[in-house]
Amino acid sequence: MKNNLRQVIKTSVQAGIVCFCVASGSVLSQTLPLSPNLIGFNSDEGEKLLIDSKSREDFFPLSTQFITQNNQAYCGVASIVMVLNSLGIPAPEAPQYKPYRVFTQENFFSNEKTKKVITADVVSRKGMTLDQIGGLLASYGVRVNVYHAGDTSLEKFRSLAAENLKQPGNFILINYLRKEIGQEKGGHISPLAAYNEQTDRFLILDVSRYKYPPVWVRAVDLWKAMSTTDSDSGKTRGFVFVSKGS
Predict the structure, then answer these.
(1) Active site residue 206
(2) Is 188 a catalytic residue?
């Protein structure tokens, strides 16, 4: 009975992976090569890491909302939009989809509260800092916890993130320096979707889908990438936990 249940779960996960890969395949085919320390999700090994993971609650809701950032500075906006849609937060009007409402990268800044944190124009030129990610999310009434790497530790991050990824209804955004995980090259923001306990790797759903596929990265490498200093804020990068407000 247990083996049959395990096979059903495995088949369901594989079906979800196939749908995910089909939906994003045209983008993934043009991505840059990966360094040896990374495992592309669009590989047999990458698929197996998800199937074997016990911490993957975020994968399916995020993959349903997976989008490509509109421009090379909009990684934060794309990541936030994915999370807000995954949480089912009431969205502003989207003229192109009227009468349906959904968060898009075009309507995200229609909330006047977001403009008090940072404007769309500034984000288009400079991107956003970790604290600005938190402020923008909070402007839509969600519960936010911002963690600068310099204020915590690898062990704490691993523990908190792995536990979060076992639970539905909450998500993790990471702010990291690409070159520290062997990519090109500057600061970046994307959601985490899963954690594989056996290999100690996290799955990053990279929103720059024109550049890299989702990748499995070692926890220690990701931690080094989040422990770097953001020159705009003077603080270390880090991660943000997001869930619905009380």
Answers:
(1) yes
(2) yes
